[in-house]
Amino acid sequence: MNGVALITGSAVRVGREIAFHLAEEGWDLALHYNSSLKEASFLEADLKASYPKQQFYLCKASLSSVDETRKLISSVIDYFSQLDLLINNASIFESASLKDTSVQILDRHWQINCRAPFILINDYANLADKGMIINIVDSRITKNDSDYLAYTISKKALWELTKMAAVELAPAFRVNAIAPGALLSPVGKGSDYLKKVVLKTPMKEPVGMTSLLKSIDYLLENESMTGQLLFCDGGANLV
After folding, report:
1. Angle between the 103-110 and 149-169 helix axes, to the nearest 10 degrees?
2. How confident is the model over 113-168, as pLDDT tens digits?
3. N or C: which end of the chain has fewer CB within 10 A?
């Protein structure tokens, strides 16, 4: 399966790996970035060198801006004349308990982790006749730990949005979510952080990017899947 895919936050980390994986599968890609112009440019150059017959389009937008986010889907459709897949991957992840979470911290997470995906899904549904949407949430949505309160609340809301969108937009659109677990250490944290986290999970190993990419493939290939959540977390949601 291939077509045109838009990946938010594609320049670094998980988004970059998803971009290379979809390119390998033959997809043309809209590569969203905000502040990571250097990394996005390197990504585009690497993809063009490796897949010269495919198209790659860099699109800048601050997902904290309603106006910039609103232009993203239309710009991709204008460039490619179609959009077959939207992956809402971009997010921020800041540590703060309930007592330490300011309104500003809450707003930052809400804007990028939930409001922006809503805007993109809304525009996609209004500007395209059909398509697929995958929202990247987090296995934390099953828990009520408050150490990353704003992040967790925004991801819980994104999962609820996934289900509601799946009902309303079917059968033209399939909307699903993936909940990764310990995949990469947060920015500023070393590998020891990841090792400590995974010891609390049944599988006791980091998820690994390959497992996440296989989850994406499964959702893309299974035409009966909509409104579903795939846990890719080594069993973290169970404990």
Report:
1. 30
2. 999 999 999 999 999 999 999 999 999 999 999 999 999 999 999 999 999 999 99
3. C
Domain that holds residue 75: 4-238
Distances (CA, A) of 74 to 83, 117, 184: 10, 14, 32
CA angle 47, 49, 50 (to 5 degrees): 65
Count of structural domains, the chain: 1
First to last CA, the chain: 36
Do residues 30 and 2 make contact, with C-beta atoms less than 8 angstroms apart? no
State the SS3 of 182-218: CCCCCCCCCHHHHHHHHCCCCCCCCCCHHHHHHHHHH
Q: What average pLDDT does range 199-215 have in this prediction? A: 91
CATH of the domain at 221: 3.40.50.720
Residues 184, 232: Cα–Cα separation, whole Å: 13
In the structure, what pLDDT confidence band is assigned to residue 88 with cuts at 50, 70 and 90?
A: very high
Q: What is the rounded average pLDDT for all residues in the chain?
A: 95
- Is it the case that residue 31 has pLDDT exceeding 90? yes
The token duo for 61 is 């937008």
Structure tokens at 141: 């949505």
Tell me the H-state helices in 25-135.
37-50, 66-70, 72-80, 103-110, 116-127
Give the whole-angstrom CA distance, residue 93 versus residue 156.
Answer: 14
